[in-house]
Design goal:
Elements (H helix, E strand, L loop, with lengths): L5 H4 L4 H6 L7 E4 L2 H6 L2 H8 L3 E3 L7 H14 L4 E4 L17 H4 L6 H10 L3 H16 L5
Parallel strand pairs: 1-2, 1-3
Length: 144
């Protein structure tokens, strides 16, 4: 089923790596496009001597950064987390700067992602419940 392959179809695996606890670097960078394009992990490593990983997402707002920060604190042993806050647009409600639901939807099979989606938007609860119910139904043998 294509639903079971949704995480595989996502070309950007960083969020899934974070959720599954597979990010082991010392320094993590969180931010929007300025963090994504303005801070290179390799240069940060060269300057500090610490292994680095950039979790910045263009178009993301401060609420998405907060979500990433919480996950970093829960799932990693990072020595330092750099939160890039140089863009005041991250604090405002712009159509182009938002909570990056599109990065969470492919990972809907992780319970903590479902919980986050439901928490963020109550109307999503029905979609999440439907997807989970469908997945459960599809996992039963057809002979039942």
């Amino acid at each position: 089923m294509w639903e079971a392959k949704m995480p595989e179809l996502e070309s950007d695996q960083r969020l899934e790596q974070l959720i599954t606890g597979n990010i082991k670097q010392d320094v993590l960078v969180i931010g929007s496009s300025r963090g994504a394009r303005g801070i290179l992990a390799k240069e940060l490593e060269a300057a500090t001597g610490y292994s680095s990983y950039n979790l910045s997402y263009p178009g993301s707002d401060i609420l998405f950064h907060e979500f990433l920060l919480k996950k970093c604190l829960e799932k990693t042993q990072a020595k330092m987390i750099v939160l890039v806050l140089d863009d005041p647009g991250a604090f405002y409600d712009y159509e182009t700067i938002n909570f990056r639901y599109d990065k969470l939807y492919p990972l809907i099979y992780y319970p903590e992602i479902r919980e986050e989606l439901v928490l963020r938007e109550k109307k999503i609860k029905y979609v999440v419940d439907w997807v989970v119910a469908y997945r459960i139904r599809e996992s039963f043998p057809s002979s039942l």
